[in-house]
């Protein structure tokens, strides 16, 4: 359901930007670092929206990459802990009952 709302909001935003851009077709002067150019305002608006979308998208990709890397390290740690638990339960089962009793007794004495 959340994904559907996101899609609907994206479509609504796109329509608003398109309508706003089509209404503003007058030429404007744009100053770049290396010079000036006269462009239709519609291109400036659409270019700005595109650049903003690319920046937000790249930030999202970066965040997903970090989360996947973190998840992979946590899965490795979880696997190591499971192996350690299995080893400890196997060695615990191999000990005779008398040695377990002695181990507990010496632990509670000190």
Q: Quick summary of this structure?
A:
The protein is built from 3 helices and 2 strands, in the order H-E-E-H-H. It is mainly alpha-helical and 110 residues long.
Strand content bin: 5-15%
**Number of structurally distinct domains:** 1
- Tally of helical segments: 3
Largest sheet report:
2 strands, antiparallel
Strand order of the largest sheet: 1-2
Radius of gyration: 31 Å
The average pLDDT value, as a whole number, equals 84
What is the total tally of β strands? 2
Order of helices and strands: HEEHH
* Morphology: rod-shaped
Helix content: over 70%
Structural class: mainly alpha
- Span from first to last CA? 59 Å
Low-confidence stretches: none
Describe the structure.
- It is built from three helices and two strands.
- The protein starts with a helix and ends with a helix.
- The protein is mostly helical and 110 residues long.
- The protein has a two-stranded antiparallel sheet with strand order 1-2.
- The chain has one domain (2-109).
- It has helices at 2-23, 41-94, 97-109; strands spanning 27-31, 36-40.
List its salient traits.
110 residues, mainly alpha, two-stranded antiparallel sheet, transmembrane helix, cell membrane, DUF1049 domain-containing protein
List the helices and strands and how they pair.
Blueprint: H1 2-23, E1 27-31, E2 36-40, H2 41-94, H3 97-109
Helix pairs in contact: 1-2
